[in-house]
Amino acid sequence: MAFEETLDKANATVQASIAVPRYFALYKQKFGIRVFRPVKVENVYLHNDRFYIDSSKTLFSAMGIINATGTWENPYIPAYPGANVFMGEQLHTKDFKTADYFKGKRVVVVGAGISAIQLLDQISKVATTFWVTRRPPVFREGPFDDVAGHKAVAMVEERVRNGLLPSSVVSVTGLPL
User: Fold this and answer.
1) Where do runs of H (alpha helix) occur along the chain?
2) Which of 150, 152, 157 is nearest to 172 (CA)?
3) Which candidate, 20, 138, 23, 129, places its Cα nearest to that of 70?
4) Degrees (nearest 5) of the Cα angle 51, 39, 6?
5) What is the dihedral sign for C-alpha 58, 20, 112, 74?
6) pLDDT at 63
7) Nearest by Cα to 53 from 44, 62, 64
């Protein structure tokens, strides 16, 4: 489902904290996806090519599992050397309201995910910005269609089957130009 399908055409802009939950709600409704929350996963085990998931609410079984962590309500803010002496303001993506808040300031945007790029694009128009990433960003040409999605899933599956931790989402999806 295209993200554009969920946007209000009358408004030129929309906050991510409003647009993203709206998108997921409409996606869930359109495709009839059952969502259980909050649920704490207590145990996952593989038996006869099927995963079994014990949770705080019910039992599930599936042919595959996607571990998607981090939410708007539980942002991950890593510890870093010097954090205790940093006198500036540190915000998470979920705290972003408008680029005008940063007008005339010096802002460092950390991360190479789509959220970082979207914020960088907006904030750089009103503030002096710096962009910091762990590795050079990888931009993707063309659409992220079903073929690209299947390739991304295969890359993650190969890493996990080789005993490696999955890399970041954007490392397998690439970033749109």
Assistant:
1) 16-31, 114-123, 146-161, 169-173
2) 152
3) 20
4) 95
5) negative
6) 83
7) 44
Q: Considering only CA atoms, which of 118, 124, 134 is closest in space to residue 103? A: 124
Torsion, Cα of 85, 86, 89, 93 (10° steps): -110
The three-state secondary structure class of 134 is coil
Tally the residues of the chain: 177
Tell me the pLDDT tens digit for each residue of 95-152.
Answer: 888 999 999 999 999 888 888 888 999 999 999 999 998 888 888 888 878 788 788 8
Do β-strands 175-176 and 139-140 pair in parallel, antiparallel, or remain unpaired? Answer: parallel
Tokens found for residue 176: 């749109």
Helix H or strand E encompassing 49: none
Assessment of whether the complete model's pTM goes beyond 0.85? no
Please count the CA atoms within 13 angstroms of the CA of 73 that sit on its side-chain side.
2
Lookup: tokens for 134:
């762990």
E-strand stretches of 10-88: 41-47, 50-55, 59-62
Tens digit of each residue's pLDDT (9 = 90 or more) over 67-80: 665 566 677 777 77
Residue 96: how many CB atoms within 10 A of its CB?
Answer: 18
| Matching residue, tokens 């954007």 | 170
138: which 2 tokens? 């990888």
